[in-house]
Amino acid sequence: xxxxxxxxxxxxxxxxxxxxxxxxxxxxxxxxxxxxxxxxxxxxxxxxxxxxxxxxxxxxxxxxxxxxxxxxxxxxxxxxxxxxxxxxxxxxxxxxxxxxxxxxxxxxxxxxxxxxxxxxxxxxxxxxxxxxxxxxxxxxxxxxxxxxxxxxxxxxxxxxxxxxxxxxxxxxxxxxxxxxxxxxxxxxxxxxxxxxxxxxxxxxxxxxxxxxxxxxxxxxxxxxxxxxxxxxxxxxxxxxxxxxxx
Length: 246
Fold this sequence. Notes:
alpha+beta, three-stranded antiparallel β-sheet, two-stranded antiparallel ribbon, 7 strands, globular
């Protein structure tokens, strides 16, 4: 694996305790009946055979569901983007954050997970409850055509094609880096989210050029915020070698 500029030590500097402000009352929360109805609709739209879920961000490192198989897969026509405005979770009203979704254009290499055989509506409902909580987010859940080494199939994707309120699309990386280096909410910081995503993508052999550049920018930003912390010495540098006792 490549050596990341954004280290756990730098990520730790971004953490602070934040209270959970609770859901935004201006959004319309989904109730149990809403979740069941949406799960049934998506189940009716599903292909015959196994249920697959496409992971491109936090679902890779924090799936919170049982899977029986995983494969590398590519969704064409989409790319990762920090475009979801956050004043909760990994941001606050005082220091808003950003989280990832899929924006149109390009291609996105990720991982698909096959869920155990079972009742699809119940499986889908569990995923929905993890990923969305309001009516305004329903349109971001969709079936994605993906290509794998074994062929093409469809997988369920979340936060795909976001637009309108609560989004900041097509932002330059330096602006995103400035936000991620400063934002933190009650579940963690933007820097932590980025670190976990990039490190797990690298472990799968997935090299996202934009995210790799972004983690370098965030590392530089964190060092500047916290007093010009020097960059770590590269591997093989004398300061990284263990010296034999004399």
